[in-house]
From TrEMBL:
Family stated for the protein in its record: Belongs to the methyltransferase superfamily. RlmI family.
Protein name: SAM-dependent methyltransferase
InterPro entries: PUA, PUA-like_sf, PUA_sf, RlmI-like_PUA, SAM-dep_methyl-trfase, SAM-dependent_MTases_sf
Gene Ontology biological process: methylation; rRNA processing
Species the sequence originates in: Kosmotoga arenicorallina S304
Length: 391
């Protein structure tokens, strides 16, 4: 079957040919004649077939390619793509919870699927992908026979794509707090919480950090439901204080601590991280984690966000007499060197030094694609903090 044709401008950069699935509106010479969300075939100006994808005139990313072949985009297509993605993930059996589909990295732009034990939570972020909802659903059922599949497609950006929010069980059913085990810890993915319910991307960093936990008084800033805190308590921390602005996240964290037999080991504080960090006394904690949400979306406006990273880290460094700072950034628009620069400036202003013990990023189930730099977003460092006079 053939689809409406889109033709690229001549003499384009190699990005699309090197594997990037996005085609911007200013790269297209002849636009396809079709409705938004439709499948289109993309050609070079000299008539060479580039690939097949979906079109949306409302987005600056006019086309997102799904394949470089003349193949049908149907249930079988999704079965093949999901099988490929699963084959990569199944090489590692460290957890029953992982990201099964990471959008562009798995050749499925606009789709994320996280697995929590035998429940799947999917997020669709584009009109084109939303039109394949039924095929995705059938493919997941065929491959995994799950107990339930929940769609949690939420956020203001959906309006720009022209699609409604969806927050419901599409297949089977399950609890709002989905239990799953990870690194020998019982966790809960909250379907009324953020993203797909849990931040699976930090689990390897949290696990690494737990080696340094013994007897530490921990402060988990931007804790959400306590991923870091629970890893550290399991690692032998004395106590963990969780700070987040979301009351619900903190309530779930308390439930998670009960499930793990650690209810007396945590305290929760609802508040603003920036204010809270400013008012700490040096030495109140031995280990501080800073894991803020993405601070900016657009690479043009990163200056303020870099200043905010410096301020957050400076306040945490000042609050540590000697101890550990674990700090992170999930802002895709900020490059690693710029983020690290902000931390180094914080060290200089605090008259302390940080010995870098660990450098982390995304786990294997959030693979960074060499062709799509936008898939690289998570940055993580653990520093041992000392006064310059104590080196
Ligand atoms: C990236 S998530 C943290 C994930 C968490 N560390 C984990 O591993 O599960 C960011 C968290 O920061 C919280 N948050 C956002 N702005 C905040 C602020 N100004 N003060 C305190 N918490 C904030 C959000 O509610 C969210 O739970």
């Amino acid at each position: 079957m053939l689809f409406p044709r889109a033709i690229l401008k001549p003499r384009l950069k190699r990005r699309v040919f090197n594997g990037h699935p996005w085609v911007y509106d200013n790269e297209i010479d002849t636009f396809p004649e079709c409705e938004d969300g439709s499948l289109v075939d993309l050609f070079t100006s000299s008539g060479q077939f580039v690939g097949r994808g979906y079109y949306n005139s409302r987005s600056t990313i006019s086309i997102r390619l799904l394949t470089r072949k003349y193949e049908n985009i149907d249930e079988d297509f999704f079965v093949r793509k999901i099988q490929k993605a699963f084959a990569l993930r199944s090489k590692y059996s460290e957890t029953s919870a992982y990201r099964l589909i990471f959008g562009e990295s798995d050749g499925l732009p606009g789709l994320v699927v996280d697995r929590y034990s035998n429940y799947f939570v999917m997020q669709i972020s584009t009109l084109g992908m939303s039109l394949f909802r039924e095929s995705i659903l059938s493919a997941l059922i065929k491959l995994f026979n799950p107990k339930g599949i929940y769609e949690k497609s939420e956020g203001a950006f959906l309006k720009l794509e022209g699609i409604p929010q969806v927050s419901e069980w599409l297949y089977g059913s399950g609890p709002t707090l989905i239990p799953f085990k990870m690194n020998d810890i019982q966790f809960l993915a909250d379907l009324m919480g953020q993203k797909t319910g849990f931040f699976l991307d930090q689990r390897c960093n949290a696990r690494f950090l737990s080696r340094f936990a013994s007897e530490k008084r921990v402060l988990d800033v931007f804790s959400y439901t306590g991923n870091f805190a629970l890893h550290l308590l399991k690692g032998g921390a004395h106590h963990a204080t969780l700070l987040d602005q979301s009351e619900r996240a903190l309530e779930v964290a308390k439930e998670v601590s009960r499930l793990n037999g650690l209810p007396d080991k945590i305290s929760v504080i609802k508040g603003n991280a920036f204010d809270f960090l400013r008012n700490l006394n040096p030495g109140d904690y031995d280990l501080i984690i800073i894991d803020p949400p993405a601070l900016v979306k657009n690479a043009k406006y990163t200056e303020k966000a870099i200043a905010a990273y410096k301020e957050l880290n400076l306040r945490a460094i000042r609050a540590l007499k000697e101890g550990l700072l674990a700090t992170s950034s999930c802002t895709q628009a900020i490059r690693e060197d710029a983020w690290l620069g902000s931390i180094h400036r914080a060290f200089n202003d605090s008259k302390k030094i940080g010995l870098q013990l660990f450098s982390g990023s995304q786990p294997f189930d959030h693979p960074v694609s060499s062709a799509v730099f936008e898939t690289n977003y998570l940055k993580f460092r653990a520093f041992y903090i000392r006064k310059i006079s104590d080196i």
